[in-house]
Fold this protein.
Amino acid sequence: MNWHLLLLSFTTVFLSELGDKSQLAAMTLGGSSRSPRAVFLGASAALVLTSLIGVLAGEGAAQVLPTALLKGVAAAGFALMAVRLLWPRPAEVQDEDR
Amino acid sequence: MQLQEPTRPLPLHPPETHSELHSQATPKQAAPKQAVSKLDPKVVLATFSTIFLAEVGDKTQIATLMMSAQSQQPWVVFLGAAPALVLTSLLGVMAGQWLSKKFAPQVLDTLAGLSFLALAVALLWDGVLR
């Protein structure tokens, strides 16, 4: 077992992921959800799978995956969620007569 | 020909927001936030797909890819990368929980909306415009 490489990859990934998009997403989803454990499970599984793909596919991954398209889809999804959350809700209008 | 006038805008909001919790049962009461112990598969799936789409081809994946290629020991790299990723998501979710206790639901919704907006812009910048 190459402990040096293990530690190197752990540190590299941990530092590059700290404060990154996916962590912000996990934070937002985990904060606004009733089941934070479900968010944690989903986020972890997705991240582990992406790194697994990265490890297995090697240098072919960049050619195989339509990265720009996937990111575009994700961006649209986030934008949709943002609009839904920021949309003014008539039910929540407070009494302003007082 | 009859035209039906919409009396109010469509209620667009996700089921996951605090304000929407228990809305059918108690419309006017702020119900206490219950600790839900069972895993909601919908939440797992939604989170999974969202984060998976966002992370594919991201710098973290490129980093693991490079390290695997250089070292020729992909499994060691994976064993290092996987716990790091699990740990960052754990920290993220914990931070989110902490924030949700500090702010009112409406403030949280706005913060979450802005955060998603920022994510959308960042992803567009990353994957499409560059």
Notes: Chain A touches chain B through 81 residues (CB under 8 Å). The mean pLDDT of chain A is 82.
